[in-house]
Amino acid sequence: MFKVRYKSHHDVKNIIDDLLKRKMATNIGFNKILNSKTGKRECGIYIHTPYCDKICSFCNMNRKQLNNNLDDYTDYLCKEFKKYGEKKYVQEKEISVVFFGGGTPTIYKANQLEKILSNLKENFSFSKDYEITFESTIHNLSLEKLKIMEKYGVNRISIGVQTFSDRGRKLLNRTYDKKTVIEKLKNIRNNFSGLLCIDIIYNYPGETLEEVEEDARILCELGLDSSSFYSLMIQEGSKIAKARNEEEIIFKYNLERDKELHDRFLEITSKNGYEVLEHTKISNGKDSYKYIDNINRAKNLLAIGTGAGGRVEDIEYYNLNKMVTFYSRDSEFKYNMKKLSGIMQFKSVNLSEIQELSGRYYGEVYELLKEYEIKGLIKLEKETYTYTKDGVFWGNSITAEVVKMIINLEKGK
What we know:
Layout: H1 9-19, E1 23-24, H2 27-34, E2 42-49, E3 51-52, E4 64-65, H3 71-85, H4 88-91, E5 94-102, H5 110-123, E6 126-136, H6 143-151, E7 156-162, H7 166-171, H8 178-191, E8 195-202, H9 209-222, E9 226-231, H10 239-245, H11 255-271, E10 275-278, E11 281-283, H12 290-296, E12 301-304, E13 309-312, E14 315-319, E15 325-329, H13 332-343, E16 348-350, H14 351-358, H15 362-374, E17 378-380, E18 384-387, H16 389-393, H17 395-411
Parallel strand pairs: 2-5, 2-12, 3-4, 5-6, 6-7, 7-8, 8-9
Antiparallel strand pairs: 1-15, 9-11, 10-11, 13-14, 14-15, 16-18, 17-18
């Protein structure tokens, strides 16, 4: 059906960046925006912690194993909060979403965590219905830290479980066995009033149908509020990639097997009240995941910390380290393509938004969507289209084809 199954929205973003040249920007233009009052009132914050005390075998993210105290990095984050909080652009904003990513953002000591969160709340104004998320491993999240987080308004936690299978957990270099993980998740649920979410990886080397069924069943039994579910992506630089290259493990990607495991996970969770929120996320209805809505709709997102990336109006930026930041500026067309690829992540997509972002190419886009309906991937209605189960599996590939078609039309190819 498709030559390639793209597994995440990052794949589609990479296609856009490859096909449309990046326009460099400078900190002068960036600071000009920050020193002015402009733009929409809503804004988000992404805060990166590039440290872990244990490296997952599949991870190649911007992180390193902790070998020192984090007092200096804690102070650095607090200074960044103050710096941004003093900007005119930020002072007129209401923060609707904060996401602590990593790395492992719960790696801080309790006193460091409290300092970070208290400074965050002191320097920014928050909307009434804000969402503050912490990513975490199961072994880094003590009850002491949990109480501090809730004290300062953290209302969503995402735990990197990846799998409950003891064999799978060993392969992915996770801490604790299945029984302990379940007990700790129950303990977090009993001591935290916010949303409790997890990550699940499927189709890791040798995963059986019974293992993916168990992951889905335990998720439902625990009543967790949402779960991401990603097919394993083996990235160069990860431990598991090295093990495969050295033939310590055998993993040959099989599309049919990938789909079988994906569909079985969705079948079990959907029968237990979970619905697809976007291509790689299910929710029980309580978790609307405002952070991914910010990302998918290319809204303003302040990037704080080494390894953090964000957007202020038409400028995207990435903090390589404490001293070096890269800036780029999107053309209106490229911005529209990024936003189009983002809204197409959701289970149900508004056709008027597709029309607005695709502009004069909407006719061609709609014809392509009709082809996908014939193939059973989407269901077209008067004002929306909705992905079928097969469409969710192929969702990022569908998005990639739509975006590539528009870009090629724009280029006159």
